[in-house]
Model the fold of this input.
Amino acid sequence: MELKASEIASHLKGTVVGDPNVVVKTISRIEYGKEGSLCFLANPKYENHLYTTKASVVLLNRSFSPSSAVNATIIQVDNAYESIAVMLDLFNSMKEVSRSGRSWRATVAWSAKLEKGSYVGPSSYIGKRSKIGKGAQIFAQVFIGNDVIIGNGTIIHPGVKIYSGCKIGNNCIIHSNSVIGADGFGFAPSSDGSYKKIPQTGNVVIEDNVEIGAGTTIDRATMGSTLICKGVKLDNLIQIGHNVEIGDNTVIAALTGVAGSAKIGKNCQLGGQVGIAGHISIADNTKIGAQAGIMSTIKKEGEVLIGSPAFDAKEYFRAYTVFKKLHKNQ
Done:
């Protein structure tokens, strides 16, 4: 794939500073830029690479003014980070070829329905009455149980397991070895000290434009649905408990655990290794730092929290300056 700087600028609604006819064939990091590549600068920490990069084209925020001469052609955009994501998506879509049909080595129940343009790869299994939407891509060794719905354009990578009754929306991406709809961790203590399993009779509902990282597990509800709302992005190796609800466009980093029946609001951001207690609620637009522990309901929108148990980030760092010195006073 080859694009001129002028074509890229037109696609991004940007402004070219330099040669509009220079051609790019690939995308690279700014510190490893080479002739024929496109890169970007959004973090000032990498500004020094702007003046030494061999990349042909660099995306810069309109608000940024270089302090030295730049050899590359510049395309000024409103948001360089967002623009490089657009270009990565464009390059990726150009090189990927969607498949259709089903492998002769796939097993598809006679009552399952495969819509036009969908694909089922080798050694995959589609259960009874399940529906695979238009253009959906089910790669090799995927298990899809009975009565599952997969939306249009959704991509299911190799090794994913989707248990019976779960519903996946349109244009979702589920990465390898994720498990959707396993039983929630529900056990009732008995008088003899043993635990009786509580049947998990619900399902998992994943709305449109959700991406789920590799090895992430989302448990089915005891009753009703575990709900992942539209636009949610989950990193690798996340555990979502039964009856959890995650609001629109919330993003969660790797190794986070969310206990059963917790409710996370819209547009929240959770760092890596965060622990969320069960049966609590987190308000919209909350930001939670890595390794924080959330033990109780967060009612105020837009808070920034860190620590375990977590509290206001500014207060935490003020307290940290004190308690890190406590041993010196002994």
Remarks:
- Residues 80-95 form the longest helix (16 residues).
- The longest strand covers residues 37-41.
- The radius of gyration is 24 Å.
- The helical segments are 5-12, 47-50, 80-95, 313-323.
